[in-house]
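quick one, 204 residues, struct below
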Amino acid sequence: MKKIFLLLLVVAANTACNAQQTSTQDHPVVAEVAKNNDPHKIHWMSLEEAYTATQKEPRKIVIDVFTGWCGWCKVMDQKTFSESKVADYVNKNFYAVKLDAEQKEDITLGSQKYSFVVQGQGGYHQAAAGLMGGKMSYPTIVYLDEKFNLIQAVPGYQDAKQFHQIITFFGDNFYKKEDWNKYSQETYQKQFGSQNNLASGTKQ
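---
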């Protein structure tokens, strides 16, 4: 946990945010988090809620880092995270977090506080910058282990099948046993062959 705190502080302090400077709008998925009790939809929470939850019941964390102006972030909400098989796996194995990289509210994790940094006409949040290593690209999915240490940040749009491959790679600890190419080409097919009907851009 101390490792991720240090990473957040060092990177956020040195980040030059080159992201598009557009005002952040309220994100529709975040607005619905509190209302979501459907077992076949991802149970999103805040970073602070995930931090508190993992103190009581350790679990890996998956973080969707987005902005209000990011079009591909919205596509992932609509076509990737909406897949019931994806949601089922996430809910059983992870705490799922939505993190607006341009939110103005402070985030407090333990004794550390992370804030919004004004830059030009916009800015970035220190927590997002630290988690993404200062590479402000959206969407980015960040994976943390049960002790809140960084496993890996994966930038770019992912359809349902791609996301399912990646999240199972980390969720079932295959990343500790073999490289990604072997997992995606061989092991995934053996372990999750029934998930091959997860299509790009379609709901099951």
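The chain has one domain: 2-158.
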